Amino acid sequence: RARQDGGGCRFFRPEILAQLQRRLSLERELQMAVENQAFSLCYQPQVDLATGRVTGLEALIRWRHPSRGPVAPDVFIPVAEETGQILPIGQWVLGEACRQLEKWQAAELGSTPNLAVNISAFQFRQRNFADIAQRVIEHHQLNPERLELEITETALMQDPDSTLKTLKKLRDLGVSISLDDFGTGYSSLSYLKRFPVNALKIDKSFVDDLPLDLDDIAIVRAIIALAERLKLNVVAEGVETREQALFLRDEGCQLAQGYFFLRPVPGVEINPLLTLPPPF
Ligand code: C2E
Ligand code: CA
Ligand code: CA
Ligand code: CA
């Protein structure tokens, strides 16, 4: 007998159906992309605001779909996280990034840049994640101190006890940890003290309206002060203008990345010893 309230029908509203179909096809296409290795990495420099020197690079995944063209990670990473496909994808990212780092290391440039790799919560929470990281480092004969893992604060808070174990193992390996999108999740400041992390990344949303928005100024100052107090490095994300870069430098933020310096580019286009002309 048909339901009177129509509640069963709401599910089949056309826009929801269309959304489901889009998702299902994205899921299938991701599977093919995993099998065909249709991903690549781009790299965006992290710049020392005092000197203009590039101290590190963040690896960012790119997916060029055969007919749809580039699909943004903000679109497919959440789907991959829900389906579990993030595990093979994340493993590929880590391996590919380390292969690139090995090349830069072998080029004997005098100093090798740090390489930051985004690790999704799901990937980080695998029991043996630290062992996986260790194996990749050994396979590519990397100096573990050159490798940084970027994890969102929300990911760390999901299971604090096992997180702490994994973080300690990574620290013992010599790998550093950055808290990504800092300030946008809910992290307890007391965990920040307990967890062996090395850097805070100020989320782009707090940088966008600098140097004008008084709330953002207050938040950015507080994060920089917190980082100083806890002896953590601090990196500002999404710096697009000279004014933002100057403001952050004057506030004591050491490192920044953003389109103002360079957009993410393929590894072959990166000269890792690059010093950007100080615009200051
Ligand atoms: P995220 O880790 O916070 O990365 C920063 C994002 O901001 C990147 O977008 C980067 O291209 C972009 N960006 C950098 N500077 C600027 C700027 O000045 N202006 C603007 N408008 N954007 C800027 P992208 O590459 O599209 O990645 C989006 C998100 O997808 C990342 O945010 C990260 O959460 C996720 N992601 C990207 N690559 C990976 C990956 O390899 N693994 C995992 N698990 N997640 C990834
Ligand atoms: Ca990141
Ligand atoms: Ca961010
Ligand atoms: Ca604002």
TrEMBL record:
Name of the protein described by the UniProt record: Bifunctional diguanylate cyclase/phosphodiesterase
Keyword Phosphoprotein in record: yes
Source organism, top-level taxon: Bacteria
Full-protein positions shown: 290 to 569 of 577
Domain EAL stretches: 23-278
Coiled-coil ranges (or none): none
UniProt entry keywords in alphabetical sequence: Phosphoprotein
